[in-house]
Design a protein that fits this description.
Elements: E1 8-12, E2 18-23, E3 33-36, H1 39-42, H2 47-53, E4 58-64, E5 67-72, H3 78-94, H4 124-141, E6 144-152, E7 155-162, H5 170-185, E8 191-194
Parallel strand pairs: 7-8
Antiparallel strand pairs: 1-2, 2-5, 3-4, 4-5, 6-7
Helix pairs in contact: 4-5
């Protein structure tokens, strides 16, 4: 098997606490996205995330396709750690170590509202299609993800992941971008709400 040599560059995201580190090759051996808020969540699933959490300034790790989004702690500036993180990730990938070893079990969603009360609606598939076509690519380019949770009584509930979770501009994106898009394409949409 031919060894892949990764080149990694850093991209600034709208969230000042996160940076997206992009490889020129796919990094996740398994499909999907992987989000970790602690070393305990990463244990046995992502050796890369485990090693990143060993660094004292890493607060969260998000892995998908060909990138790693790292959320830093508040006590350090990116100027002091950005190059170190980029080199760390590049060296890790070039050693051929596994990034993800197994599927991540669905963790209980930490939400501001009880999402267990929602049931499927007639608009669910249309909302998902619009989010997948128009929103997901832009959100992924910023180092994050958006997942449809439910539609109930005029409200669309979504979960934000990666750099989007906790981003100061995410509320403006939800209201000015996503909400407007859905209102323009579907009748009955009144509001888009992030559950996390």
């Amino acid at each position: 098997m031919e060894r892949i040599v990764h080149s990694v560059y850093a991209e600034i995201t709208p969230n000042p606490s996160t940076v997206k580190y992009v490889s020129d090759h796919r990094i996740c051996e398994l499909p999907g996205e992987f989000e970790f808020d602690s070393i305990n969540e990463a244990k046995g699933i992502s050796p890369l995330a485990e090693e990143l959490f060993a660094l004292p300034f890493v607060d969260a790790v998000y892995l998908a396709n060909n990138f790693v989004t790292v959320t830093k702690t508040d006590n350090v500036d990116w100027d002091f750690i950005n190059m170190e993180l980029r080199e760390f990730i590049r060296n890790y990938l070039n050693q051929g170590k596994p990034v993800v070893q197994k599927e991540q079990e669905a963790k209980p969603k930490k939400t501001k509202i009880d999402i267990s009360q929602f049931s499927a609606s007639d608009l669910d598939d249309q909302i998902k299609a619009l989010l997948d076509e128009y929103v997901a690519p832009a959100v992924e380019s910023d180092g994050g993800a958006i997942n449809f949770i439910a539609y109930q009584e005029g409200k669309v509930f979504v979960e934000l992941k990666g750099s989007c979770n906790g981003c100061p501009s995410s509320e403006a994106t939800l209201k000015g971008g996503i909400e407007t898009l859905l209102k323009n394409h579907l009748e009955g949409i009144e509001e888009v709400v992030a559950v996390n």
